[in-house]
Amino acid sequence: MKAYLNTQGLVFKLQPKITRVGRHQDNDLCLRNAGVEESHALIEWQGAEHCYVLTDLDSSHGTYVNGCRIHNASVRLSPGNQLHFGYGGSAYELIVDSSTPLPLLGRDQSAAPPVWVWGGAPINPHPPTRSPAPRTRPASAGAKQPGQSHALTPPPHRLGRSHAQTTLSHRPGQSHGLTPPSHRPGSWPGNTGSRSSARSPVASQSLQSLQHLLQEKEERVLRLGDDVCRLSVFESECVRKDHLISSLRDEVSALTHQLTHSQAQVDVTHTLNSLQTEISLKTQQIQDLKDQLCELQLSGEQVKQVVTDRDMRISSLRAQLDRLKSDNTKNSGLVSSLQGDLLSRDRHTLKLTAEIDGLRQDIRHKDAQLQNLSNKFSRKQQTDSLAHEEDVNTLKKSVESLDASLRDTKRDLRLISSDRDSLRERLQDKTQDLSSLKVELDRQRQQLVETQNQQQNTHNQLQVLRKQILQATTTATNPSHTPSDQEVLEAVRALAGQEGALQSRVQELQQQHIDKEEEMEELKNSGEEERRKRERH
Protein backbone atom coordinates (compact mmCIF):
# COMPACT_ATOMS: atom_id res chain seq x y z
CA MET A 1 0.00 0.00 0.00
CA LYS A 2 1.46 3.31 -1.10
CA ALA A 3 0.24 6.74 -0.11
CA TYR A 4 1.15 10.28 -1.12
CA LEU A 5 0.54 13.83 0.09
CA ASN A 6 -0.34 16.08 -2.84
CA THR A 7 -0.14 19.89 -2.60
CA GLN A 8 0.08 22.50 -5.39
CA GLY A 9 1.52 20.11 -7.95
CA LEU A 10 4.06 18.62 -5.50
CA VAL A 11 3.84 15.01 -4.34
CA PHE A 12 5.39 13.63 -1.13
CA LYS A 13 5.51 9.87 -0.66
CA LEU A 14 4.70 8.58 2.85
CA GLN A 15 6.99 6.14 4.63
CA PRO A 16 5.91 2.46 4.83
CA LYS A 17 5.34 2.53 8.61
CA ILE A 18 5.68 5.95 10.29
CA THR A 19 6.04 9.39 8.70
CA ARG A 20 7.15 12.19 11.01
CA VAL A 21 5.96 15.75 10.32
CA GLY A 22 7.51 18.84 11.94
CA ARG A 23 9.83 21.80 11.70
CA HIS A 24 13.02 19.91 12.64
CA GLN A 25 15.19 18.82 9.74
CA ASP A 26 15.32 15.20 10.98
CA ASN A 27 11.59 14.76 10.28
CA ASP A 28 10.45 12.94 7.15
CA LEU A 29 8.26 15.89 6.10
CA CYS A 30 9.98 19.14 7.14
CA LEU A 31 7.62 22.16 7.13
CA ARG A 32 8.70 25.76 7.67
CA ASN A 33 5.34 27.54 7.83
CA ALA A 34 4.13 29.26 10.99
CA GLY A 35 2.47 27.24 13.75
CA VAL A 36 4.42 24.00 13.09
CA GLU A 37 6.24 22.49 16.10
CA GLU A 38 9.63 20.77 16.03
CA SER A 39 7.78 17.42 16.21
CA HIS A 40 4.22 18.23 15.11
CA ALA A 41 2.44 15.02 14.07
CA LEU A 42 2.82 11.36 13.02
CA ILE A 43 1.19 9.53 10.10
CA GLU A 44 1.28 5.80 10.89
CA TRP A 45 0.16 2.81 8.82
CA GLN A 46 -2.08 0.45 10.82
CA GLY A 47 -1.91 -2.96 9.20
CA ALA A 48 -4.62 -4.46 11.41
CA GLU A 49 -7.18 -1.80 10.46
CA HIS A 50 -5.74 -1.39 6.95
CA CYS A 51 -5.68 2.41 7.12
CA TYR A 52 -3.47 5.39 7.98
CA VAL A 53 -3.77 7.07 11.40
CA LEU A 54 -2.84 10.72 12.03
CA THR A 55 -1.62 11.54 15.58
CA ASP A 56 -1.14 15.12 16.81
CA LEU A 57 1.86 15.41 19.21
CA ASP A 58 0.32 18.02 21.56
CA SER A 59 1.05 20.90 19.18
CA SER A 60 0.18 24.49 20.07
CA HIS A 61 -1.94 25.23 17.00
CA GLY A 62 -3.17 21.68 16.32
CA THR A 63 -3.62 19.67 13.13
CA TYR A 64 -6.66 20.01 10.85
CA VAL A 65 -8.38 17.19 8.90
CA ASN A 66 -11.04 18.48 6.48
CA GLY A 67 -11.24 21.70 8.51
CA CYS A 68 -11.69 19.94 11.90
CA ARG A 69 -8.99 20.61 14.50
CA ILE A 70 -7.26 17.67 16.19
CA HIS A 71 -5.22 18.41 19.33
CA ASN A 72 -3.26 15.70 21.14
CA ALA A 73 -5.42 12.95 19.63
CA SER A 74 -5.48 10.34 16.84
CA VAL A 75 -7.84 10.03 13.88
CA ARG A 76 -8.19 7.59 10.99
CA LEU A 77 -7.55 8.94 7.51
CA SER A 78 -9.35 8.19 4.27
CA PRO A 79 -8.26 8.82 0.68
CA GLY A 80 -9.02 12.40 -0.31
CA ASN A 81 -8.77 13.88 3.22
CA GLN A 82 -7.38 17.43 3.36
CA LEU A 83 -4.59 17.74 5.96
CA HIS A 84 -3.37 21.05 7.36
CA PHE A 85 -0.49 21.39 9.84
CA GLY A 86 -0.43 24.55 12.00
CA TYR A 87 -1.59 27.68 10.22
CA GLY A 88 -0.45 29.70 7.21
CA GLY A 89 0.69 26.69 5.15
CA SER A 90 -0.65 24.66 2.25
CA ALA A 91 -3.27 21.94 2.48
CA TYR A 92 -2.15 18.34 1.75
CA GLU A 93 -4.45 15.84 0.07
CA LEU A 94 -4.01 12.18 1.01
CA ILE A 95 -3.81 9.93 -2.07
CA VAL A 96 -3.74 6.16 -1.54
CA ASP A 97 -2.56 3.85 -4.33
CA SER A 98 -4.63 0.70 -3.84
CA SER A 99 -2.90 -1.29 -6.61
CA THR A 100 -1.15 -4.53 -5.54
CA PRO A 101 2.59 -3.92 -5.07
CA LEU A 102 5.02 -5.95 -7.14
CA PRO A 103 7.00 -8.69 -5.32
CA LEU A 104 10.67 -8.15 -4.65
CA LEU A 105 12.98 -9.96 -7.07
CA GLY A 106 15.13 -12.73 -5.65
CA ARG A 107 18.19 -14.38 -7.05
CA ASP A 108 16.19 -17.12 -8.71
CA GLN A 109 13.39 -14.92 -10.05
CA SER A 110 13.07 -13.38 -13.45
CA ALA A 111 13.67 -9.64 -13.80
CA ALA A 112 10.44 -9.36 -15.81
CA PRO A 113 7.20 -8.84 -13.86
CA PRO A 114 4.48 -11.49 -14.26
CA VAL A 115 2.46 -9.22 -16.53
CA TRP A 116 5.14 -9.21 -19.24
CA VAL A 117 6.11 -12.91 -19.26
CA TRP A 118 4.78 -14.82 -22.24
CA GLY A 119 5.52 -17.89 -24.33
CA GLY A 120 7.12 -18.27 -27.69
CA ALA A 121 4.16 -16.99 -29.64
CA PRO A 122 3.84 -13.22 -29.47
CA ILE A 123 0.82 -11.88 -27.66
CA ASN A 124 -1.02 -8.93 -29.12
CA PRO A 125 -2.04 -6.14 -26.80
CA HIS A 126 -5.58 -6.32 -25.49
CA PRO A 127 -7.77 -4.21 -23.24
CA PRO A 128 -7.55 -4.76 -19.49
CA THR A 129 -9.28 -7.84 -18.18
CA ARG A 130 -10.99 -6.04 -15.30
CA SER A 131 -14.59 -5.10 -15.97
CA PRO A 132 -14.84 -1.47 -16.96
CA ALA A 133 -17.58 0.83 -15.74
CA PRO A 134 -20.67 1.10 -17.98
CA ARG A 135 -20.14 3.35 -20.96
CA THR A 136 -22.59 5.29 -23.01
CA ARG A 137 -22.63 3.59 -26.40
CA PRO A 138 -22.76 6.05 -29.30
CA ALA A 139 -25.84 5.88 -31.48
CA SER A 140 -25.59 4.03 -34.77
CA ALA A 141 -25.28 5.83 -38.05
CA GLY A 142 -28.69 4.66 -39.17
CA ALA A 143 -30.37 6.20 -36.10
CA LYS A 144 -28.78 9.64 -36.49
CA GLN A 145 -30.60 12.42 -38.25
CA PRO A 146 -28.84 14.59 -40.82
CA GLY A 147 -26.92 17.41 -39.24
CA GLN A 148 -26.72 15.74 -35.82
CA SER A 149 -23.36 16.16 -34.05
CA HIS A 150 -21.18 13.15 -33.26
CA ALA A 151 -20.31 13.43 -29.55
CA LEU A 152 -17.73 11.26 -27.85
CA THR A 153 -18.19 10.13 -24.27
CA PRO A 154 -14.97 10.16 -22.25
CA PRO A 155 -14.19 7.11 -20.09
CA PRO A 156 -15.50 7.24 -16.52
CA HIS A 157 -13.30 7.90 -13.53
CA ARG A 158 -11.48 4.84 -12.21
CA LEU A 159 -11.47 4.54 -8.45
CA GLY A 160 -8.17 4.02 -6.67
CA ARG A 161 -6.07 5.47 -9.48
CA SER A 162 -3.14 7.58 -8.25
CA HIS A 163 -3.13 11.27 -9.16
CA ALA A 164 0.64 11.25 -9.18
CA GLN A 165 0.94 9.11 -12.34
CA THR A 166 2.17 10.67 -15.54
CA THR A 167 0.49 10.69 -18.96
CA LEU A 168 1.88 9.50 -22.26
CA SER A 169 2.82 12.10 -24.80
CA HIS A 170 1.92 11.67 -28.46
CA ARG A 171 4.81 11.37 -30.85
CA PRO A 172 4.55 11.85 -34.60
CA GLY A 173 4.59 8.59 -36.50
CA GLN A 174 3.92 6.48 -33.42
CA SER A 175 0.89 4.20 -33.33
CA HIS A 176 -1.71 4.86 -30.65
CA GLY A 177 -2.19 1.18 -29.98
CA LEU A 178 -0.13 -0.89 -27.59
CA THR A 179 3.34 -1.74 -28.81
CA PRO A 180 4.67 -5.21 -28.20
CA PRO A 181 6.59 -5.53 -24.97
CA SER A 182 9.78 -6.42 -26.83
CA HIS A 183 9.83 -2.97 -28.46
CA ARG A 184 8.75 -0.96 -25.42
CA PRO A 185 11.48 0.81 -23.42
CA GLY A 186 11.88 -0.56 -19.94
CA SER A 187 10.32 -4.02 -20.79
CA TRP A 188 11.94 -7.46 -20.74
CA PRO A 189 11.65 -9.92 -23.63
CA GLY A 190 11.44 -13.56 -22.73
CA ASN A 191 9.81 -16.97 -23.23
CA THR A 192 8.03 -19.38 -20.88
CA GLY A 193 10.58 -21.12 -18.68
CA SER A 194 13.45 -18.77 -19.53
CA ARG A 195 14.82 -16.53 -16.76
CA SER A 196 17.19 -13.65 -16.78
CA SER A 197 20.53 -14.56 -15.26
CA ALA A 198 21.64 -11.01 -14.44
CA ARG A 199 19.90 -7.88 -13.31
CA SER A 200 20.14 -4.54 -15.02
CA PRO A 201 22.32 -1.95 -13.26
CA VAL A 202 19.30 0.25 -12.54
CA ALA A 203 17.35 -2.61 -10.89
CA SER A 204 20.34 -3.60 -8.75
CA GLN A 205 20.75 0.00 -7.55
CA SER A 206 17.13 0.93 -6.84
CA LEU A 207 14.63 -1.91 -6.93
CA GLN A 208 11.98 0.21 -5.28
CA SER A 209 12.11 2.89 -7.99
CA LEU A 210 11.95 0.16 -10.65
CA GLN A 211 8.78 -1.28 -9.14
CA HIS A 212 7.25 2.18 -9.03
CA LEU A 213 8.16 2.65 -12.71
CA LEU A 214 6.56 -0.69 -13.60
CA GLN A 215 3.37 0.26 -11.81
CA GLU A 216 3.26 3.55 -13.69
CA LYS A 217 3.66 1.65 -16.98
CA GLU A 218 0.85 -0.69 -16.01
CA GLU A 219 -1.36 2.32 -15.38
CA ARG A 220 -0.40 3.69 -18.79
CA VAL A 221 -1.24 0.36 -20.41
CA LEU A 222 -4.63 0.36 -18.71
CA ARG A 223 -5.31 3.89 -19.93
CA LEU A 224 -4.32 2.93 -23.49
CA GLY A 225 -6.52 -0.14 -23.22
CA ASP A 226 -9.45 2.09 -22.33
CA ASP A 227 -8.71 4.23 -25.37
CA VAL A 228 -8.54 1.13 -27.59
CA CYS A 229 -11.90 -0.05 -26.21
CA ARG A 230 -13.43 3.30 -26.95
CA LEU A 231 -11.96 3.42 -30.47
CA SER A 232 -12.94 -0.18 -31.22
CA VAL A 233 -16.59 0.83 -30.80
CA PHE A 234 -16.16 3.47 -33.48
CA GLU A 235 -14.41 0.96 -35.76
CA SER A 236 -17.29 -1.49 -35.41
CA GLU A 237 -19.68 1.34 -36.20
CA CYS A 238 -17.67 2.18 -39.32
CA VAL A 239 -17.72 -1.46 -40.46
CA ARG A 240 -21.46 -1.68 -39.87
CA LYS A 241 -22.02 1.51 -41.82
CA ASP A 242 -19.86 0.20 -44.68
CA HIS A 243 -22.10 -2.87 -44.86
CA LEU A 244 -25.13 -0.60 -44.76
CA ILE A 245 -23.72 1.48 -47.63
CA SER A 246 -23.10 -1.62 -49.72
CA SER A 247 -26.64 -2.84 -49.08
CA LEU A 248 -27.99 0.59 -49.98
CA ARG A 249 -25.96 0.54 -53.17
CA ASP A 250 -27.51 -2.81 -54.03
CA GLU A 251 -30.91 -1.34 -53.42
CA VAL A 252 -30.03 1.66 -55.59
CA SER A 253 -28.95 -0.61 -58.43
CA ALA A 254 -32.15 -2.62 -58.09
CA LEU A 255 -34.21 0.54 -58.06
CA THR A 256 -32.32 1.84 -61.08
CA HIS A 257 -33.13 -1.39 -62.89
CA GLN A 258 -36.78 -0.96 -61.98
CA LEU A 259 -36.61 2.64 -63.09
CA THR A 260 -35.59 1.63 -66.57
CA HIS A 261 -38.70 -0.55 -66.82
CA SER A 262 -41.08 2.04 -65.34
CA GLN A 263 -39.97 5.48 -66.47
CA ALA A 264 -43.49 6.81 -66.32
CA GLN A 265 -43.93 6.22 -62.62
CA VAL A 266 -43.34 9.52 -60.85
CA ASP A 267 -43.28 7.93 -57.39
CA VAL A 268 -40.35 5.71 -58.28
CA THR A 269 -38.37 8.73 -59.48
CA HIS A 270 -39.13 10.60 -56.28
CA THR A 271 -38.12 7.59 -54.20
CA LEU A 272 -34.89 7.26 -56.14
CA ASN A 273 -34.03 10.91 -55.56
CA SER A 274 -34.70 10.57 -51.84
CA LEU A 275 -32.55 7.45 -51.69
CA GLN A 276 -29.72 9.20 -53.50
CA THR A 277 -29.98 12.13 -51.05
CA GLU A 278 -29.92 9.72 -48.12
CA ILE A 279 -26.92 7.90 -49.60
CA SER A 280 -25.03 11.17 -49.94
CA LEU A 281 -25.90 12.07 -46.34
CA LYS A 282 -24.78 8.66 -45.08
CA THR A 283 -21.56 8.99 -47.07
CA GLN A 284 -20.98 12.40 -45.52
CA GLN A 285 -21.65 10.97 -42.04
CA ILE A 286 -19.19 8.15 -42.66
CA GLN A 287 -16.57 10.66 -43.76
CA ASP A 288 -17.26 12.75 -40.63
CA LEU A 289 -16.87 9.68 -38.43
CA LYS A 290 -13.57 8.84 -40.10
CA ASP A 291 -12.39 12.41 -39.56
CA GLN A 292 -13.44 12.20 -35.92
CA LEU A 293 -11.57 8.92 -35.57
CA CYS A 294 -8.42 10.57 -36.94
CA GLU A 295 -8.90 13.53 -34.64
CA LEU A 296 -9.34 11.20 -31.68
CA GLN A 297 -6.14 9.40 -32.55
CA LEU A 298 -4.35 12.76 -32.84
CA SER A 299 -5.90 14.20 -29.65
CA GLY A 300 -5.26 11.21 -27.38
CA GLU A 301 -3.06 13.26 -25.10
CA GLN A 302 -5.73 15.95 -24.77
CA VAL A 303 -8.32 13.31 -23.89
CA LYS A 304 -6.01 11.91 -21.22
CA GLN A 305 -5.48 15.38 -19.78
CA VAL A 306 -9.24 15.95 -19.73
CA VAL A 307 -9.70 12.59 -17.98
CA THR A 308 -7.06 13.52 -15.41
CA ASP A 309 -8.70 16.89 -14.78
CA ARG A 310 -12.07 15.20 -14.47
CA ASP A 311 -10.64 12.68 -11.99
CA MET A 312 -9.26 15.50 -9.88
CA ARG A 313 -12.58 17.35 -10.08
CA ILE A 314 -14.48 14.21 -9.06
CA SER A 315 -12.17 13.74 -6.05
CA SER A 316 -12.67 17.37 -5.03
CA LEU A 317 -16.45 17.00 -5.48
CA ARG A 318 -16.38 13.88 -3.31
CA ALA A 319 -14.50 15.76 -0.59
CA GLN A 320 -17.03 18.59 -0.90
CA LEU A 321 -19.85 16.04 -0.68
CA ASP A 322 -18.34 14.61 2.53
CA ARG A 323 -18.11 18.11 3.98
CA LEU A 324 -21.72 18.81 3.00
CA LYS A 325 -22.81 15.53 4.62
CA SER A 326 -21.03 16.46 7.85
CA ASP A 327 -22.59 19.94 7.71
CA ASN A 328 -26.00 18.36 7.12
CA THR A 329 -25.50 16.12 10.16
CA LYS A 330 -24.53 19.11 12.29
CA ASN A 331 -27.50 21.11 11.00
CA SER A 332 -29.92 18.25 11.71
CA GLY A 333 -28.60 18.04 15.28
CA LEU A 334 -28.97 21.80 15.62
CA VAL A 335 -32.55 21.66 14.29
CA SER A 336 -33.46 18.90 16.76
CA SER A 337 -31.97 20.90 19.64
CA LEU A 338 -33.87 24.01 18.49
CA GLN A 339 -37.10 22.02 18.32
CA GLY A 340 -36.52 20.82 21.88
CA ASP A 341 -35.91 24.42 22.99
CA LEU A 342 -39.12 25.49 21.21
CA LEU A 343 -41.15 22.79 23.00
CA SER A 344 -39.70 23.79 26.37
CA ARG A 345 -40.51 27.44 25.63
CA ASP A 346 -44.10 26.50 24.69
CA ARG A 347 -44.48 24.70 28.03
CA HIS A 348 -43.02 27.72 29.82
CA THR A 349 -45.46 30.01 27.93
CA LEU A 350 -48.44 27.89 29.02
CA LYS A 351 -47.21 27.99 32.60
CA LEU A 352 -46.80 31.77 32.45
CA THR A 353 -50.33 32.14 30.99
CA ALA A 354 -51.77 30.20 33.93
CA GLU A 355 -49.79 32.35 36.36
CA ILE A 356 -51.05 35.53 34.64
CA ASP A 357 -54.68 34.37 35.03
CA GLY A 358 -54.10 33.76 38.73
CA LEU A 359 -52.49 37.18 39.11
CA ARG A 360 -55.48 38.84 37.39
CA GLN A 361 -57.83 37.22 39.89
CA ASP A 362 -55.62 38.40 42.77
CA ILE A 363 -55.64 41.93 41.32
CA ARG A 364 -59.47 41.96 41.19
CA HIS A 365 -59.64 40.81 44.82
CA LYS A 366 -57.10 43.44 45.90
CA ASP A 367 -59.00 46.15 43.99
CA ALA A 368 -62.09 45.35 46.05
CA GLN A 369 -60.04 45.47 49.26
CA LEU A 370 -58.52 48.78 48.18
CA GLN A 371 -61.98 50.27 47.61
CA ASN A 372 -63.03 49.29 51.12
CA LEU A 373 -59.85 50.75 52.57
CA SER A 374 -60.35 54.02 50.68
CA ASN A 375 -63.87 54.37 52.13
CA LYS A 376 -62.55 53.74 55.62
CA PHE A 377 -59.73 56.22 55.06
CA SER A 378 -62.14 58.97 53.90
CA ARG A 379 -64.26 58.54 57.05
CA LYS A 380 -61.17 58.57 59.24
CA GLN A 381 -59.88 61.65 57.45
CA GLN A 382 -63.07 63.56 58.29
CA THR A 383 -62.78 62.71 61.97
CA ASP A 384 -59.09 63.61 61.96
CA SER A 385 -59.81 67.00 60.36
CA LEU A 386 -62.27 67.88 63.13
CA ALA A 387 -59.77 66.91 65.80
CA HIS A 388 -57.08 68.87 63.97
CA GLU A 389 -59.19 72.05 64.03
CA GLU A 390 -59.61 71.74 67.78
CA ASP A 391 -55.85 71.25 68.18
CA VAL A 392 -55.21 74.36 66.07
CA ASN A 393 -57.36 76.50 68.34
CA THR A 394 -55.53 75.31 71.44
CA LEU A 395 -52.18 75.86 69.73
CA LYS A 396 -53.12 79.44 68.83
CA LYS A 397 -53.78 80.19 72.50
CA SER A 398 -50.47 78.63 73.52
CA VAL A 399 -48.65 80.67 70.82
CA GLU A 400 -50.03 83.91 72.26
CA SER A 401 -48.75 83.00 75.71
CA LEU A 402 -45.38 82.06 74.23
CA ASP A 403 -45.15 85.46 72.51
CA ALA A 404 -45.53 87.19 75.85
CA SER A 405 -42.84 85.03 77.43
CA LEU A 406 -40.62 85.68 74.39
CA ARG A 407 -40.79 89.42 74.93
CA ASP A 408 -39.72 88.95 78.55
CA THR A 409 -36.85 86.71 77.46
CA LYS A 410 -35.62 89.29 74.93
CA ARG A 411 -35.49 91.91 77.66
CA ASP A 412 -33.42 89.57 79.85
CA LEU A 413 -31.13 88.81 76.88
CA ARG A 414 -30.36 92.50 76.41
CA LEU A 415 -29.25 92.73 80.04
CA ILE A 416 -27.12 89.60 79.70
CA SER A 417 -25.56 91.00 76.53
CA SER A 418 -24.43 94.15 78.31
CA ASP A 419 -22.87 92.03 81.10
CA ARG A 420 -21.21 89.87 78.49
CA ASP A 421 -19.58 92.87 76.83
CA SER A 422 -18.10 94.03 80.12
CA LEU A 423 -16.80 90.55 80.83
CA ARG A 424 -15.35 90.36 77.32
CA GLU A 425 -13.36 93.56 77.95
CA ARG A 426 -12.01 92.18 81.21
CA LEU A 427 -11.13 88.93 79.47
CA GLN A 428 -9.20 90.78 76.79
CA ASP A 429 -7.20 92.55 79.51
CA LYS A 430 -6.46 89.24 81.18
CA THR A 431 -5.50 87.75 77.82
CA GLN A 432 -3.00 90.52 77.19
CA ASP A 433 -1.49 89.97 80.64
CA LEU A 434 -1.34 86.26 79.94
CA SER A 435 0.43 86.80 76.60
CA SER A 436 3.03 89.02 78.29
CA LEU A 437 3.55 86.35 80.94
CA LYS A 438 3.94 83.75 78.19
CA VAL A 439 6.63 85.87 76.58
CA GLU A 440 8.40 86.19 79.90
CA LEU A 441 8.09 82.46 80.48
CA ASP A 442 9.57 81.73 77.06
CA ARG A 443 12.47 84.02 77.84
CA GLN A 444 13.06 82.26 81.20
CA ARG A 445 12.90 78.89 79.44
CA GLN A 446 15.47 80.09 76.94
CA GLN A 447 17.76 81.18 79.77
CA LEU A 448 17.28 77.83 81.49
CA VAL A 449 18.21 76.00 78.30
CA GLU A 450 21.28 78.16 77.87
CA THR A 451 22.31 77.55 81.50
CA GLN A 452 21.85 73.80 81.06
CA ASN A 453 23.96 73.92 77.90
CA GLN A 454 26.62 75.91 79.74
CA GLN A 455 26.58 73.40 82.60
CA GLN A 456 26.91 70.55 80.13
CA ASN A 457 29.83 72.27 78.43
CA THR A 458 31.48 72.86 81.81
CA HIS A 459 30.99 69.26 82.73
CA ASN A 460 32.49 68.19 79.42
CA GLN A 461 35.43 70.53 79.97
CA LEU A 462 35.90 69.04 83.42
CA GLN A 463 35.97 65.57 81.99
CA VAL A 464 38.44 66.66 79.32
CA LEU A 465 40.57 68.38 81.93
CA ARG A 466 40.54 65.33 84.09
CA LYS A 467 41.68 63.21 81.21
CA GLN A 468 44.38 65.72 80.42
CA ILE A 469 45.54 65.70 84.03
CA LEU A 470 45.74 61.96 84.04
CA GLN A 471 47.57 61.97 80.73
CA ALA A 472 49.88 64.63 82.00
CA THR A 473 50.68 62.59 85.05
CA THR A 474 51.44 59.50 82.96
CA THR A 475 52.77 60.81 79.60
CA ALA A 476 54.71 63.92 80.47
CA THR A 477 57.89 64.80 78.68
CA ASN A 478 59.69 64.06 81.88
CA PRO A 479 58.35 60.73 82.93
CA SER A 480 60.45 60.83 86.10
CA HIS A 481 58.46 63.89 87.36
CA THR A 482 55.11 62.84 88.80
CA PRO A 483 52.59 65.52 89.95
CA SER A 484 51.66 65.35 93.57
CA ASP A 485 48.23 64.43 94.77
CA GLN A 486 47.80 67.83 96.33
CA GLU A 487 48.16 69.58 93.00
CA VAL A 488 45.66 67.31 91.36
CA LEU A 489 43.18 67.79 94.23
CA GLU A 490 43.50 71.57 94.05
CA ALA A 491 42.77 71.56 90.36
CA VAL A 492 39.78 69.31 90.96
CA ARG A 493 38.50 71.51 93.80
CA ALA A 494 38.68 74.55 91.55
CA LEU A 495 36.67 72.79 88.90
CA ALA A 496 34.20 71.54 91.52
CA GLY A 497 33.72 75.08 92.77
CA GLN A 498 32.91 76.28 89.27
CA GLU A 499 30.50 73.44 88.86
CA GLY A 500 28.76 74.23 92.17
CA ALA A 501 28.35 77.87 91.18
CA LEU A 502 26.83 76.81 87.89
CA GLN A 503 24.46 74.39 89.59
CA SER A 504 23.31 77.08 92.04
CA ARG A 505 22.66 79.37 89.08
CA VAL A 506 20.67 76.61 87.39
CA GLN A 507 18.59 76.08 90.54
CA GLU A 508 17.83 79.78 90.74
CA LEU A 509 16.67 79.78 87.11
CA GLN A 510 14.55 76.71 87.71
CA GLN A 511 12.93 78.34 90.74
CA GLN A 512 12.17 81.42 88.67
CA HIS A 513 10.68 79.19 85.99
CA ILE A 514 8.46 77.46 88.56
CA ASP A 515 7.27 80.83 89.89
CA LYS A 516 6.39 81.97 86.37
CA GLU A 517 4.45 78.78 85.72
CA GLU A 518 2.49 79.26 88.97
CA GLU A 519 1.60 82.79 87.91
CA MET A 520 0.49 81.52 84.50
CA GLU A 521 -1.65 78.86 86.18
CA GLU A 522 -3.30 81.48 88.40
CA LEU A 523 -4.04 83.64 85.36
CA LYS A 524 -5.53 80.66 83.53
CA ASN A 525 -7.69 79.77 86.53
CA SER A 526 -8.95 83.33 86.83
CA GLY A 527 -9.71 83.40 83.08
CA GLU A 528 -11.62 80.12 83.37
CA GLU A 529 -13.68 81.43 86.29
CA GLU A 530 -14.58 84.58 84.38
CA ARG A 531 -15.56 82.56 81.31
CA ARG A 532 -17.76 80.29 83.44
CA LYS A 533 -19.43 83.28 85.00
CA ARG A 534 -20.07 84.76 81.56
CA GLU A 535 -21.51 81.47 80.35
CA ARG A 536 -23.83 81.31 83.36
CA HIS A 537 -25.13 84.82 82.61
Automatic annotation (TrEMBL):
Gene name for this UniProt entry: fhad1
Keywords for the protein's UniProt record, in alphabetical order: Coiled coil
Chain spans, region Disordered: 118-205, 505-537
PANTHER family: FHA DOMAIN-CONTAINING PROTEIN (PTHR18853:SF10), FORKHEAD-ASSOCIATED DOMAIN-CONTAINING PROTEIN 1-RELATED (PTHR18853)
Keyword flag Coiled coil: yes
Protein name according to UniProt: Forkhead-associated domain-containing protein 1
Source organism of this protein record: Clupea harengus
SMART domains on file: FHA (SM00240)
Pfam family, one: FHA
Bias (Basic and acidic residues): 522-537
Compositionally biased region (Polar residues): 189-203
Domain called FHA: residue spans: 19-70
